[in-house]
Each structure stands twice: as C-alpha cells, then as structure tokens.
Amino acid sequence: MIQRHSPIAHAAYHDLMRGLKDEAVSALRGTPTRVERNGRAYWYDSFRVGTDVRKHYIGEDSPDLSARLEAHRAARDDAQARRRNRARLVRLLRAEGFLGLDPTTGSLMAALAGSGVFRLGGTVIGTHAFRLYEGELNLRFDLSQTAQTDDIDIASFERLSLALEDAASPPVQEVLGDFAFAPVPSLQPGKTWRWKQTTGNTLIEFLTPAFGAEEGLRPLPALGVEAQALHHLNYLIAEPIAAAVPYRNGVLVQIPRPERFAIHKLIVADRRRKDDRLKAEKDRMQAAFLIEALAEDRPEDLAEAYEEALDRGPKWRERIAASLSRMPETAARLQEVAG
C-alpha cells in the first residue's frame, strides 16, 4: 500500500525546490554567459578576478533556467529573507513527517553543494537518493525503507566533467578533509575513489559510467577526484533531476530519475545476489516500492525506462529477468504498464 504525505507537505516541498533553484541563480557573482559546445548550450557565471575573467558553470540551457536568469537580471530579493523562508519550509516538512538527515551528513551535503559538486554534474545515487524520492513522488516511507546507510555514493560522467571547463571550489578533497575524511588506498598508487571518515563510519565513493570493457578508475576533472567506472551507470544517471534535502534552510542536490533508479536496481540486485544477498534484497525492495508508486503516478515514464533498458541488449534483459523472477507482483506490474 503506497502512503502519501499531505497536500500541504507536497506543496511545501516544491516551494522549497523553487526557492533553492532561485537561490542558485541569485548567487551569481557576474554576468550570465551562454556558451555552445557540440550542439548543446550551457550557461556560465562570468566574472573578473583582477585582470582575469573566470567562468563558473551554472547549468545546461533550458527554458526554466533561462527564465530564472532573466528574473535574476530584473531584481534580487533579500538573501536573509529567502533563507528564513526556506528554513520555515524545512520545519514544515519535518512536522509533516519528512525524513531528515543527521547533522554530520546534512552539513557534509551542504558543503559539497557549496563547493559546486552537484552544479558540476555530481549525482547522488544509492539509498540517499532513494530517500529523496519522498519529496519528488510525495511518498511516505515506513521504518523498513528508511534504514540509514553510512555510505554516500556520488556519480558523474567523465566526458561532462572534462567538457565543463570548471572545477569545484573549494576543491572536493579540501571539503572532505574538513570533515575528517581520508583517502582509502586503491590498487592504483596515488589514485583514490573512496574516502573514509576517520571519526566515524561514513564512506564516500565517486563513480562514473564504464563505456568499455574495463571497470577501472577514471578522472573527474571538474570534481578533482578519481572515480570507479561501472557498467550500467550511464543508464542510471542520464537526465538527472534536482532534489531538495530538508536540512537547515535546504540543500539543492541532483539525483537520478526515479524510473531509471527503479529499473537500475533490478540490474544491480542480480549483479550482487551471490556476493551480498542482504544488499541485493534491499535493492529489490527499493525497486518494487518505486515501481508500484510510479505505476500509479507516472506509468508512461516507467514504461519508457523499462523498454529502454530491455533494448540495451541480452545481458541487460537477463539481469532484469533474473531479479523479476523473484518478484512476481512487480513483474506483473511492469508488464501491465508496458502493455
């Protein structure tokens, strides 16, 4: 049974999202500049530092972003009033039963957002992303679904990171150092894609899609870190969406589209069913829950994501079928929406 938050909570979440998006534009230091590369258009914040002109990436061109930039040119609201309003919305969401983050994770997410990690293409995946579908899909989670994980997974495209010609500031490694994270040694000397908190159990992993045969390490220049390349990840993080973390006055991050997340979980569950059965079971649970919710609210989006995954080849179909063989109700739901 899918349970929902109240209409007031749903409206408050979208007000918070709107406020965070507006804030991202109002924080510009200079002049919004439109740049075209390889047939795509991107916006940058261009400003002078001494005699140098610097550019910070804002986002890919879209009607929504263009409208926000136009509003930025017209007027700026008082920053303190905006922060207070967002904090009020966060308090309302918590009163309505929205999930929060512990202070350590919340402040870390805010610091990563402040350095530009999500603006520069970083996408939160894994359980932290799953929890954030609460606002996007107006879902109320039960205790078994809200188990907090100490792992934070952030994925990004290597090609996008190279093309942006911008970098996180302060650097990601500096931000992680401020939170007592140390690099975990890898098989490649001098390169690390995992960071472990020395004062706790939190582990941060940076990931990127693998387009070739190997799942080795790849650089993410915009973030200044190495990332572990994984197959199937390009499907997951294509066309990510913004999400609001209900912490303090809100934190704007980026997560996968929920329909892609659900189908990807079916693939991941089969990949790890022999090595980590508990995680595979959690993957199937999250997939089943989201598929049921999406079948009610966004059946067309779910059907499109499912069909796209099936069209990617026999190995994709085998993994999806293997997971669905353990989930007869979910399999029937997918067949229903796919027609």
Automatic annotation (TrEMBL):
Transmembrane domains' residue ranges: none
Cite a single Pfam family from the UniProt record: NTP_transf_8
Record-annotated Nucleotidyltransferase-like domain positions? 105-310
Give residue ranges for domain DUF6788. 28-65
Which keywords, in A-to-Z order, does the entry hold?
A: Plasmid
Would the keyword NAD be found if you checked this record's keyword annotation?
no
InterPro entries linked: DUF6788 (IPR046738), NTP_transf_8 (IPR022550), NTP_transf_8_dom (IPR058575)
The question of whether Ribosomal protein is a record keyword is answered with no
User: What is the name attached to this protein's record?
Assistant: Nucleotidyltransferase
Q: What is the lineage of its organism?
A: Bacteria, Pseudomonadati, Pseudomonadota, Alphaproteobacteria, Rhodobacterales
